């Protein structure tokens, strides 16, 4: 799945398949300007920062179990969000500090460091990398991902895929080759 935020006409957090199909709103109320987004891949939770409401909230992948993690002045101007173990990590763009927020105890907030011009944060650790099973976009014997001549996108499951073409090409009637 692909998770993303939008705060155009109607603010929301959404998800869809990697090929853009099955687009679903998972949060569309009591939300104003959702920006940073992070996933807890193990427990299947979506965390987001709402910069208008000065809040960090969480919901499960289906849009249920929504609750506030933290709200208020101490978390104004947040950008970037990452989840690792019991903590959320984010950047305060006002003072360029990296904050660590306990996602189970919102009174546990610590400034860890200051960085010049930081706008995003990522956690790279072996435990955050999920094991990959064989999938529909694996390279075939001809060297084409999923048998697609240009682009292979996973669809509704790891066993399904959709072929797409680069700009200037159209997908052939076989659903795999681009012309």
What is the end-to-end distance? Answer: 28 Å
Structural class: mainly beta
- Tally of individual helices: 0
| Rounded radius of gyration (Å) | 19 Å
Main β sheet profile: 4 strands, antiparallel
Strand order of the largest sheet: 4-5-6-7
Whole-number average pLDDT?
Answer: 90
Helix content: under 10%
CATH class of the largest domain: Mainly Beta
Strand tally is 13
What is the molecular shape? elongated
Named at the architecture level, the CATH assignment of the largest domain is 6 Propeller
Write the CATH fold name of the largest domain. Answer: Neuraminidase
Strand content: 35-45%
Number of domains: 2
Low-confidence segments, given as residue ranges, are none
Briefly, what is this?
With 179 residues, this protein is mainly beta. It has strands spanning 2-6, 12-16, 24-27, 34-40, 45-50, 55-60, 67-71, 78-84, 87-92, 97-102, 109-114, 151-154, 161-164.
Topology:
Blueprint: E1 2-6, E2 12-16, E3 24-27, E4 34-40, E5 45-50, E6 55-60, E7 67-71, E8 78-84, E9 87-92, E10 97-102, E11 109-114, E12 151-154, E13 161-164
Antiparallel strand pairs: 1-2, 2-3, 4-5, 5-6, 6-7, 8-9, 9-10, 10-11, 12-13
